[in-house]
């Protein structure tokens, strides 16, 4: 997505005509095979699996390089994005990267931006703002009150470290994006339900628990758009929550998948049964 964005494009007002053109814009696949447009972001990065193919949107990729070499690469970049939502090993590396870059701040020729893509699971145990009205929504300004799910202690510690190192924002601006559960392109968190529906081996799709829990989710391309906006705008707010405006429960989502790609039925199961599904981490 970013490799097709012209730097600063999100600062321009979009007219109605452009919005219509936008709706006809090429798909991700067409976009990634297009040649580098002028003034777009130049993407370099590490491969998530060293043996995988070099993606054609990247100018350079690295795998299995030393931290010393990685730091040299990071110092060449204006913007560094660390996604800690998919691989636990990335949490420790992100903390190392932001610390190592912070030590080099005095040598920066121009401002660098560091963006940590974290997860709303660092908010999972937060208490309602108003105990009598559980509908009052959380906002970014409340981030100091957030309480993490026990499995996401490392993630919240990484968030705190990243925010701590952004004190000199003129030289080194740091951001945390607490992303909703990601879906789209290859399915993400919802992939399991699509897979069960598509294989057609069960008469009904499982809903774990009573299904009334609202899932804070975000389409992966919308998340990419949030990151593009942070890079272009360098906002004053350094902690952002990125979720779709749709307020869908687990039951709503599974029913929709079942109706459109599966048997059309759902079945409520004890939530502990989710542990028996090896595809759900």
From TrEMBL:
Highest taxon of source: Eukaryota
InterPro entries: NAD(P)-bd_dom_sf, NAD(P)-dependent_oxidoreduct
PANTHER family the UniProt entry points to: NAD(P)-BINDING DOMAIN-CONTAINING PROTEIN-RELATED, PROTEIN YEEZ
Protein name: Adenylate kinase 7-like
Species whose genome carries this gene: Galeopterus variegatus
């Amino acid at each position: 997505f970013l490799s097709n964005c012209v730097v600063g494009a999100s600062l321009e007002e979009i007219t109605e005509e452009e919005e219509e053109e936008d709706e006809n814009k090429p798909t991700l696949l067409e976009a990634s095979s297009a040649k580098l447009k002028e003034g777009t972001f130049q993407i370099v990065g590490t491969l998530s699996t060293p043996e995988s193919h070099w993606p054609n949107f990247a100018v350079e990729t690295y795998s299995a390089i030393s931290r010393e070499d990685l730091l040299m690469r990071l110092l060449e970049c204006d913007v560094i994005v660390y996604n800690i939502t998919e691989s636990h090993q990335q949490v420790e590396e992100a903390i190392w990267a932001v610390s190592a870059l912070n030590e080099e701040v005095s040598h920066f020729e121009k401002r660098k931006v560091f963006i940590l893509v974290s997860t709303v699971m660092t908010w999972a145990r937060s208490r309602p703002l108003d105990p009598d009205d559980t509908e009052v929504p959380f906002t970014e300004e409340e981030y100091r009150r957030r309480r993490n799910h026990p499995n996401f202690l490392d993630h919240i510690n990484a968030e705190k470290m990243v925010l701590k190192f952004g004190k000199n924002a003129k030289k080194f601006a740091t951001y945390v994006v607490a992303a909703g559960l990601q879906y789209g392109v290859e399915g993400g968190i919802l992939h399991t339900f699509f897979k069960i529906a598509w294989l057609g081996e069960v008469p009904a799709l499982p809903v774990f628990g009573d299904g009334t829990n609202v899932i804070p989710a975000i389409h992966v391309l919308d998340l990419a758009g949030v990151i593009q906006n942070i890079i272009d705008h360098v906002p004053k707010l350094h902690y952002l929550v990125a979720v779709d405006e749709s307020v869908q429960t687990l039951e709503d989502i599974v029913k929709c998948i079942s109706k459109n790609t599966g048997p059309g039925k759902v079945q409520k199961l004890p939530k502990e049964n989710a542990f028996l599904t090896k595809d759900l981490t």
